[in-house]
Automatic annotation (TrEMBL):
<dbReference type="InterPro" id="IPR010044">
    <property type="entry name" value="MTAP"/>
</dbReference>
<keyword id="KW-0328">Glycosyltransferase</keyword>
<feature type="binding site">
    <location>
        <begin position="85"/>
        <end position="86"/>
    </location>
    <ligand>
        <name>phosphate</name>
    </ligand>
</feature>
<dbReference type="GO" id="GO:0006166">
    <property type="term" value="P:purine ribonucleoside salvage"/>
</dbReference>
<feature type="binding site">
    <location>
        <begin position="52"/>
        <end position="53"/>
    </location>
    <ligand>
        <name>phosphate</name>
    </ligand>
</feature>
<feature type="binding site">
    <location>
        <begin position="215"/>
        <end position="217"/>
    </location>
    <ligand>
        <name>substrate</name>
    </ligand>
</feature>
<keyword id="KW-0808">Transferase</keyword>
<protein>
    <recommendedName>
        <fullName>Purine nucleoside phosphorylase</fullName>
        <ecNumber>2.4.2.1</ecNumber>
    </recommendedName>
</protein>
<dbReference type="GO" id="GO:0005829">
    <property type="term" value="C:cytosol"/>
</dbReference>
<keyword id="KW-0660">Purine salvage</keyword>
<comment type="function">
    <text>Purine nucleoside phosphorylase involved in purine salvage.</text>
</comment>
<dbReference type="GO" id="GO:0019509">
    <property type="term" value="P:L-methionine salvage from methylthioadenosine"/>
</dbReference>
<dbReference type="InterPro" id="IPR000845">
    <property type="entry name" value="Nucleoside_phosphorylase_d"/>
</dbReference>
<comment type="pathway">
    <text>Purine metabolism; purine nucleoside salvage.</text>
</comment>
<feature type="binding site">
    <location>
        <position position="192"/>
    </location>
    <ligand>
        <name>phosphate</name>
    </ligand>
</feature>
<comment type="subunit">
    <text>Homohexamer. Dimer of a homotrimer.</text>
</comment>
<feature type="binding site">
    <location>
        <position position="12"/>
    </location>
    <ligand>
        <name>phosphate</name>
    </ligand>
</feature>
Amino acid sequence: MAEAEIGVIGGSGFYSFLDDVTEVTVDTPYGPPSDSLFLGKIAGRSVAFLPRHGRGHHLAPHRINYRANLWALRSLGVRQVLGPSAVGGLRPEYGPGTLLVPDQLVDRTKSRIQTYFDGEPLPDGSVPNVVHLTFADPYCATGRVAALGAARGRDWEPVDGGTLVVIEGPRFSTRAESRWHAAQGWSVVGMTGHPEAVLARELSLCYTSLTLVTDLDAGTETGEGVSHEEVLKVFGENISRLREVLFDAVAALPANEDRACRCTDAHQGWDLGIELP
Ligand SMILES: [Zn+2]
């Protein structure tokens, strides 16, 4: 089996910039991930890219098999994951082109399986126990530092911290919802950050979210509200420097065996009932 140490779950704009990409298909007890995984090297580090929505963006946020995606990455040897995503800004100062590295998460999704430990037997007959993990700090402290430093190194002053609220989608927010999100003090709104982060934690993976603001959310401005075309346009304008930041962040991450963050002991003595890949 091919191996990788770092995973990047992002848009299809990333793997195509690497030389010598090896495409591998991985199956999991939860079914297939969003797409093939693309293995390449960045600064001597082995990286696996996974297009979150699949090639051609055919998977809506609520249809993504998040469990399969994280499981597949871990089965290749990945222990640290960077998760870039497009978001709406909930404050006027977080306009299009803002890079925000959140430190908190609010789950407003409705229909997604968000645990591996639900007592449901796996195809091989093993049965995961019910496990309740600490999730007070949903993101890897080391990964956040790497991402922030990488952005600053590219003269892209990031917002250090903030709350990502994840909505079910695929529709965008109403003005009332958007005003409510902003009134809570939340920073940005997206559709894919959950359950990606919590499933990573359940697999003891380091997970870092990098959010690129592509629009001001519906209640934050006075225009027509966000459109998908607007999101794609701003994302396209920023993808090359986001790629540079991701590459630099990959290079700045510690070796997997040198991780000193709390993600590595996420299970804190729980008997998982199953072997992680
Ligand atoms: Zn970590």
